[in-house]
Amino acid sequence: MGSSGMLARRVVETEMPIMVKMQELIRGAKNAMSLAQGVVYWQPPKQALDKVKELVWEPSISRYGLDEGLPQLREALKKKLCLENKLHKSSVMVTAGANQAFVNLVLTLCDAGDSVVMFAPYYFNAYMSFQMTGVTNILVGPGDPTTLHPDADWLEKTLSETKPVPKLVTVVNPGNPSGTFIPDPLLKRISDLCQDAGCWLVIDNTYEYFMYDGRKHTCVEGNHIVNIFSFSKAYGMMGWRVGYIAYPSEVEGLGAQLLKVQDNIPICASIISQHLALYSLEVGPEWVTERVRDLVKNREIVIEALSPLGEGAVQGGEGAIYLWAKLPDQYVDDFKVVSWLAHKHGVAVIPGGACGCPGHLRIAFGGLTEDDTKAAAERLNRGLEELVKDGMLE
Ligand SMILES: Cc1ncc(COP(=O)(O)O)c(C=O)c1O
Question: Where is the Aminotransferase class I/classII large domain (predicted)?
Fold first, then answer.
């Protein structure tokens, strides 16, 4: 078959990313409110935006910058990593968001045909990054049925029995799609298992500041660990596209390899966005935690809305901006339910099947103000009551 035939086949076989499907669904459903996308409702700090406005005429803003990021931003991030995350031996590369950071890492650390490990329910973009970069054997481990914590006993067995040893294990902490927080002892155990097996551990800390009920986010550091962070949610900078990789400085060649990938994808993260990130960092994490504190109200509103699903159906929500809910047993085809909720009840949520767990829903509670969350939650509640009582009536 010619190369164009190959391309056509791949395009046909490849399923649309879930967020693209959701955007289409929301466009097609009249006035649907979204509890689907993982976003926050706030904008970046005003003082940071005001400063950035003054920069647009600077010639350096329109040029390429250093591949690894603005030196002053990297310096500030190194300080932040030491102070807040207790990461003292890490180098920093700034990326166009945490998703690009993850792709960089998969391209750097994995080869086609490798096996890798993640846990269900998983972050769909991480899964797709593995798929599109040629990793063929994606081992999906279970979460604890109650806490949804990654099953470390399963990991121990899998790492010892899979030959060749999986190249990389990845976790999101706190999690997307469940909002489950991985407590420090479990994170350390996962890290030790990876170290003993000789595989990488990649931790996505996108929601580091999004912790509720007195829980505290922690990081682990080691020469087998790479941590990913993002400005998107914390500082309301989704569209500015800034994230970063904290990788072990002592591992020879890792930085060079990451730079090779970086130079071929974004070259550098947007320069003006990096300045906004720096100004936002100067405003400080209290600005973020103040906003996160208020999200508890949204979380409660959504939990209440999910009550028709019954006791024990709702899990997660310890951190991040997500709740995870089990549909009644007969609704394994969760996309059908999601589509019905959007068209009939005007509210969009994510189907659990996109995260490896059909029959579930992911509900995001950070994207709307409290009043709008109430309005969206009312629709969700009405829809779920009807679903449970009468099924999906048109
Ligand atoms: C776990 C996780 N990682 C990465 C991202 C993407 O972040 P960014 O906008 O920095 O690419 C998201 C966004 O939803 C996420 O939930």
Answer: 32-380
Report the 10 Å Cβ neighbour count for 67. 18
For residue 121, whether the previous peptide bond is cis, meaning omega lies within 30 degrees of 0, is yes
Q: Smallest Cα–Cα separation from 73: which of 103, 48, 54?
A: 48
Only one residue has tokens 């020879």, namely 252
The CA distance from 42 to 113, in Å, is 41
330 alpha carbon – ligand 1 mean position (Å): 31
Q: Is the CB of 274 under 6 A from ligand 1?
A: no
pLDDT in tens, 191-204: 999 999 999 999 99
Could you give the 3-state DSSP secondary structure of residue 9?
helix
* Chain segment 312-339, per-residue pLDDT in tens: 999 999 999 999 999 999 999 999 999 9
- CB of 141 closer than 8 Å to CB of 120: yes
Cα 102 to ligand 1 centre (Å): 9
List, for residues 148-191, the tens digit of each pLDDT value.
999 999 999 999 999 999 999 999 999 999 999 999 999 999 99
Helical axes 334-345 vs 370-390, angle rounded to 10°: 120
Helix pair 124-132, 98-109: axis angle to 10 deg: 40
Is 237 close to ligand 1, i.e. is its CB under 6 Å away? no
Q: Is beta strand 360-364 parallel, antiparallel or unpaired with respect to 322-326?
A: antiparallel
* Whether 230 contacts 209, CB under 8 Å: no
Q: Does the Cβ of 236 fall within 6 Å of ligand 1? A: no
Q: Are 197 and 160 in contact, with CB atoms under 8 Å apart?
A: yes
- Residues 6 or more apart whose CB falls under 8 angstroms from that of 298 comprise 365, 366, 368, 370, 373
